[in-house]
Specification:
By secondary structure, the protein is an alpha/beta fold. It has two domains: 2-173 and 283-333, FAD/NAD(P)-binding domain, CATH 3.50.50; 178-279, no CATH class. 30% of the residues lie in helices and 21% in strands. The chain has helices at residues 8-19, 50-56, 62-81, 103-114, 139-146, 159-166, 226-233, 252-259, 318-333, and strands spanning 2-4, 25-28, 43-47, 86-88, 96-101, 116-119, 131-133, 149-150, 171-172, 178-184, 207-209, 239-245, 264-267, 270-282, 285-286, 300-302. Strands 8, 10, 11, 12, 13 and 14 form a six-stranded mixed β-sheet that branches. The protein has a five-stranded parallel β-sheet with strand order 6-2-1-7-16, sandwiched between helices. Helix 1 links the parallel strand 1 (2-4) and strand 2.
Length: 335
């Protein structure tokens, strides 16, 4: 069994397959394991009720959502049993439940459990089956094509999507929908280790205008603020200005933006923070069934951000989907 990608989904899939007696080989084209998980806050969560999941992501595939929701608690217990360092025992958000892990500890734990992980190695032209794709979607390609910032690992170019499509796979979800954040706009320099710290999350406190000074986002953003990031992406240059009271000049979000070399303008008792949309992962992708099998293609499986249509119309935990569907796909592949 081959697994393409050594992020959350691929490592969980390989670890589960090894538990079941298989000998999976993980191929990672990047120079390190962990994918975008290693750069995240590493909170793995689900909505407290399935009704909330459906309400928050109304366009998503209900079967996939049910698979993620119903499989989450067992999968999370399994992840904890592997021994990674836990930062939070539950989420502080009343809408959700889950745990926060230390990302490096979780990555190292999963690499040990996965076993045979090859770095800087892509797929052969005609790989053996079964083959499980966990290549992280096409966030880097999407950001480049739309002139947006990248807020993920630098290798998620859509390799899994392209390979599956060439072999007849169909697509699911909206390929123009992504999960992302507002980040300091250029000339700010953003290091990978600052993706979480420099995210400009203002919980509706900021007034938002585009480069023409026009307000373009009616009402407060969703609690996750990914909807705001997508709205910024559709503005000229993929940028906007957050306008907040000058009294917040020492707020850590403002301090971080300044330290990164971002633009802060103070006038008339207000601060204007120059921000840009940044893509963390895409939400459209390969169509799979609730068993992780790529629809209509024998021997192919997919998990994580390669799977389309889970969170369409909203936001849910990408790490939770990677965990649950990675395990499910592995179980299907080794049967």
């Amino acid at each position: 069994m081959l697994v393409a990608g050594a992020g959350m989904a691929g490592l969980c899939a390989a670890a589960r397959a090894r538990e079941l007696g298989a000998e999976p080989v993980v191929l990672e084209k990047g120079s390190r394991p962990g994918g975008s998980m290693l750069l995240s806050s590493c909170v793995v969560w689900r909505y407290r009720t399935f009704e909330d999941f459906r309400a928050e992501c109304p366009g998503g595939d209900e079967e996939l959502q049910r698979a993620v929701f119903d499989g989450f608690d067992e999968a999370l217990d399994w992840l904890v049993s592997l021994g990674p360092e836990i930062v939070w025992e539950d989420t502080p958000n009343p809408r959700t439940t889950g745990k926060r892990f230390e990302p490096r500890s979780l990555t190292e734990t999963l690499v040990r459990a996965a076993g045979d992980v090859h770095l800087e190695e892509g797929l052969p032209a005609e790989p053996e089956l079964p083959l499980l794709f966990a290549t992280g979607g096409f966030a880097v390609r999407y950001a480049r094509e739309h002139g947006l910032l990248v807020r993920c690992n630098p290798w998620s170019e859509g390799d899994g999507l392209d390979f599956a499509r060439e072999r007849g796979a169909t697509l699911a979800g909206d390929l123009d929908e992504f999960y992302g954040r507002a980040m300091p706009a250029p000339p700010a320099r953003i290091r990978e280790e600052d993706y979480v710290r420099l995210s400009q999350l203002w919980d509706g406190e900021a007034r938002v205008v585009n480069e023409n000074g026009d307000e373009f986002f009616p009402g407060p953003p969703g609690w996750h603020e990914s909807d705001l990031a997508q709205a910024i992406a559709r503005q000229p240059g993929g940028t906007a200005w957050f306008i907040i009271p000058s009294e917040l000049r020492d707020d850590q979000r403002v301090v971080g933006l300044r330290e990164a070399g971002g633009t802060v303008v103070e006038q008339d008792g207000e601060l204007r923070l120059h921000v840009a949309a940044a893509v963390t992962h895409t939400q459209g992708g390969i169509e799979v069934g609730p068993d992780g099998r790529v629809a209509g293609v024998e021997g192919l499986f997919a998990a994580g951000a390669d799977v389309g249509g889970i969170s369409t119309g909203g936001y849910s935990s990408g790490l939770a989907a990677a965990l649950v569907l990675g395990r499910i796909a592995a179980e299907s592949a080794v049967r």
